[in-house]
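Invent a record, attention on tokens:
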Amino acid sequence: MKYIPVDEFITENTIDPKTFNLFLEKNKIMLFGAKSNLVREYDIPRILESYQMFEKEYKDELERLAMIEAAKEERIKREIQIEQEKQDYANSFREFYEYDVVTVVNENHGCIDKEKMMKILSEHAREGWKLHSIYSNELGKNAIRILGFGVNSTACEDVLIFERRVEHLN
């Protein structure tokens, strides 16, 4: 693009149709001033090429965004399908369970309270619960020294997990 200065009061962005004449010649658009000075010359193939490049980039971006959206929708459909398969698998057993968690803190010397443990097991059994699993959770170490005698034990709690069937579908 060529710029040729005209008058002082004409700026780059203003075009007064009374002052300028527009001519189309071969592959160029030419803008002439009042004194027949060439103000601007536009190369039509370059303008079209720039527009086509912009149009191609725009279309490519739209395609890319459409592909991202399609992949996102496909992923969501797959996640829904997996969740449905999990539900179907769980329902295939036709049984539903509930769970209860009970913790029993051990005695200060580190031994379990056998009577308390038996009481909890018996109460839950009467209510239809069965012991599913049990594990010990270490809370810390105890070290006490009094009059030259020491007690060194590990403080922990036993965690009991009970299970019982809630519903059986036919």
User: Anything to note?
Assistant: The longest helix spans residues 44-92. Residues 95-168 form one domain. Residues 1-14 have pLDDT under 50 and may be disordered.
